Amino acid sequence: MNIALLSESPADEAALRVLVGYVLGQGFNQISPSLRARGWPSVELVLPAILRHLHFNTNADGLVVVVDSDDSPVHTAEHEAPGYHHPYCRICRLRSVFRRTARNLPPARGRDRVLRAVGVCVPALEAWLLCGRDTSVTEAAWVAGQAAGRPPYTRRELKWRVYGTERPALPHELRRAVQEVSRHHGDVRRLENDFPQGFGALARDLRGWRKP
Amino acid sequence: MITAVHFRNFKALRSAAVRLEPFNLFIGPNGSGKTSLIQALLRLRTLSGLPVIHRHDVPDQKPGGPQIEFHFAAPFQNVRVTLGCNSDEFVCNLLVVDHPPGLPGEGQWAGLRTQLQGIRAFLFDHYAMAVPARRSDGAELSSNAGNLAAVLARRREQAPVAFRQLEEDFCRILPEFAGLDFRDAGDGRVELAARLAERKELVAADSLSQGTLYLLATLTLAHAPAPPTVVCLEEADRGVHPRMLREVRDALYRLSYPKDAGLERAPVQVVTTTHSPYLLDLFKEHPEEVVLASKSGNAATFMRLSERTDLLELMKEAHLGDLWYSGILGGIPGE
Predict the structure, then answer these.
(1) Cys staple from B32: which of A77, B28, B304, B330, with CB 3.0 to 4.6 Å?
(2) Does residue B265 lie in a domain region?
(3) Where is average pLDDT lowest: A75-79, B77-81, B210-214, B313-317?
(4) How far is residue B248's CA from residue B173's CA, in Å, rounded to a whole number?
(5) Beta-carbon neighbour count of residue A70 at 10 Å?
């Protein structure tokens, strides 16, 4: 498959490349040049143009978009109800951009649309990187903390736990990101269990691509 | 090392103070005092190398004249240094030092003076960097990095491990290159060249891009075996692609936070400026490292971004760089 990845940093992209391969159970060809957004809300702003570009100018089969949730509401099962749209949930918003954009694009290059896979790291990629190594870091813990008004950890703390510093140099960040996701050895069940919405939604989207 | 600087009637800095951290990114419109701060630090370095004047020896000064006061971190927290300036030309020629009495105080000043002698400011000039440099000028990077070739050639000979790390970093960031090389340019001069990864050809410095040379100069500072105590770098983002600004930030962080890079040397205090919203974006998790310079009429002031109590709320809606550009943070030109 030819797949484009849109993320917020080179380390996010490196981790995503591994995880997408694990979920699909096969290698894939990444569309180049690599896509990058400056973080939320740039992702949402640039996504229609990226979709249009991929649709008409490339042979991309699908686009994977992963962003950090930061302090936004976490996607829940209720958001999956037909016609439901949470105005602040980033998964709901990104899916909405996909829908709106695809509606206005005629078929091109032998396909109706570029396939969609959207995930949200709660609250940041480092949480996914700690999955299975630090049991206190889960989507449930974050949601409970949000409800109580006391987040269980901050983004800075997560950086410390993964990189040993709040200011990792890029090569160190890349190395650690790939090391940590590679611990799953192709089996993403733990990630889906601990991050059922942010990662789970991404995995479900990707598995949907394999259906005829 | 320098914890705060207080300005009184110095150029646009009529009544302004700034607290300094190990790393400081200054943003703001032209003429808002960013360069004045760097000039003040350079003047401090120059005058601290001259015979000192103690408070009780100070000649009568015009009351309310320009003055810049410096405060320092431990172990120099009891030393206070004041620059007195000529009010007509803003030339600061009077350095007044207050330190505890006796030998311990003298010792503190001597130690601080050594540190102050290590202040350096840089505004890179790619034209100067591109021409061959005299080998004898390679002891340390000059303010415009015009001796870049000589500094790197000397480092390759005298500090090969540090040179190799720099070279690796350069080639990692710009993978079209496989290394750095040097050619004798006659008359005791050396010319810098970069080796292309694919064809092994050498590209002379005068054929390298502006941004490539700036990045190389920044890395030369970041990987210096004995860096300055304070590095002031104007327009750190200049010539660099927005996606590569992360590398610029990391290089400067390497100076300020050596432990994070696995280095055992003392931290270098960094004072840098930018007009790039993209570079500013990279500080969303460390707004305490950003200083906003603002101008109201002819008067300029400084404010740490982290002092904005609503900053976290604002950042939920927009990027730091966009917030700055929009004007809601201040630090924009008058229109």
Answers:
(1) B28
(2) no
(3) B313-317
(4) 10
(5) 18
Is B113 in the same domain as B11? yes
Considering its fold, how many domains does chain B have in total? 2
Q: Coil, strand or helix: which one is B201?
A: coil
Are residues A166 and B319, on separate chains, in Cβ contact within 8 Å? Answer: no
**Mean predicted lDDT score pLDDT of chain B:** 93
Q: List pLDDT tens digits, range A163-179.
A: 999 999 999 999 999 99
| CA A25 to chain CA centroid, nearest Å | 17
Q: In chain B, what residues touch A166 (CB-CB under 8 Å)? A: 260, 285-286
CB contact under 8 A, B257 and A71: no
> Residue B254's closest chain A neighbor by CA?
A169
pTM: 0.92
**Interchain CB distance below 8 Å, B250 and A170:** yes
Spatial distance between the Cα atoms of B4 and A114, rounded to a whole number of angstroms: 55
CA distances from A11 to A91, A120, A172, B43, B268 (A): 21, 15, 9, 42, 27
Q: What is the mean pLDDT of residues A133-158?
A: 96
Please indicate if any CB of chain A lies within 8 Å of the CB of B316.
yes
| Nearest-angstrom CA–CA distance, B223 and B233 | 15
Q: What residues make up the domain containing B200?
A: 129-209
Q: Which residue of B has its CA nearest to A39?
A: B319
Chain A residues close to B241, C-beta within 8 Å:
none
Into how many domains does chain A fold? Answer: 1
Residue pairs between chains A and B whose CB atoms are closer than 8 Å: 41
Q: Are residues B103 and B176 in the same domain?
A: no
Show the domain range for A40.
2-124+184-209
pLDDT at B88 > cutoff 70: no
Which of B172, B253, B319 lies closest to A171 in CB terms?
Answer: B172
ipTM of the complex: 0.88
